[in-house]
Amino acid sequence: MIYTSGSTGRPKGVVVEHRSVVDYVRWAVETYPGVRGNALLHSPVSFDLTVTVLFAPLVSGGRVVVAELEESPAVEAVLAGAPLTFAKVTPSHIALLDALPGVFSPSGDLVVGGEQLTGEQLGRWRRAHPTAVVINEYGPTEATVGCVAYRLLPGVESRVGAVPVGRPSWNTRVYVLDAGLCPVPVGVAGELYVAGAGLARGYLNRAGLTAERFVADPFGVPGSRMYRTGDLVRWNADGEMEYLGRVDDQVKVRGFRIELGEIESVLAAHPGIAQVAVIVREDRPGDKRLVGYVVPEAGSVVDPGELRAYAAESVPEYMVPSAVLVLDALPLTPNGKLDRRALPAPEFTADSEGRAPRTPQEEILCQVFAEV
């Protein structure tokens, strides 16, 4: 039994067969040589990120080092005596690794997964650890931890913006399909479906949800299934898969359809920003607004107004956040993913330049717009 992260609600129990775990762990041992050394276990054992760090070292002669990602002389002494060669984190953890002493970072493989990874997030860490290999691993719990991976080798410059998630692991089939379950061309966004040896049985005691997400595979042998991930992806010209966001991340604000990931990429490109999150808030019924949250680079001071002006240079006015809040750190769930529900509400001030309607016609017009 593996539980989903629960970042959008109550965690769901996913029933995974032993053979699926064995298939993934064997692939991880071959793909991540660092697991044969000292692997850092820092996440709750109830989440799928732990499967890689716990089982891959134990079946390959490696060692699991249990320690929390927090500065402590006792923990640092343990890690100094067992130099890390492998760690698996979420992108939200990278800023924490930047702030911690070097003993918390591996010299071999750093696997990043669970959220979209950008080159900007990796820049500082890679400069401090130039010999490490960074792997961007994609995989829902329903496909047994990981099923697609992209390797960023030492000396290879990180790309600006989103890092590709790469190519499927062995015994895995991935399809990028449109609404009619037809494959889309290279460069065209579609929903990702996953099939193969890693597919789970379904959700514990939730037959309806299992039937909705685990559907017949029209491209496989009769009786085979595939998992509908709800993720938007596309193939690039190099044959690598790029993650674009969630299907339900497409939001509508004031009649405009908006991709939150596009706004996050623009803000993340600012030289003084370390982490970014953009959400739609509706703190008052019917009043939907884009709100950005940023964590500045160490030693940097950012101005919310300047950030909004910076975003306005690259995106239309309706995609510019109504407010930008500067935080010391983004709130995380117990397994290291962004906790969007814990993001604070901004304080919107009234527009001092407005005025009341002066004529009956203006009053009617204001009433009409208020009802839209």
UniProtKB/TrEMBL annotation:
Any one GO molecular function term: phosphopantetheine binding
Matches recorded under CDD domains: A_NRPS
PROSITE patterns in the cross-refs: AMP_BINDING
AMP-dependent synthetase/ligase domain ranges (all copies): 1-204
Top-rank taxon: Bacteria
Phosphoprotein found in the keyword field: yes
GO biological process: amino acid activation for nonribosomal peptide biosynthetic process; secondary metabolite biosynthetic process
Keywords: Phosphopantetheine, Phosphoprotein
Keyword Aminoacyl-tRNA synthetase on entry: no
GO cellular component, one term: cytosol
Location of the AMP-binding enzyme C-terminal domain: 262-337
Transmembrane feature ranges: none
Name by which UniProt lists this protein: Non-ribosomal peptide synthetase
Species of provenance: Streptomyces griseofuscus
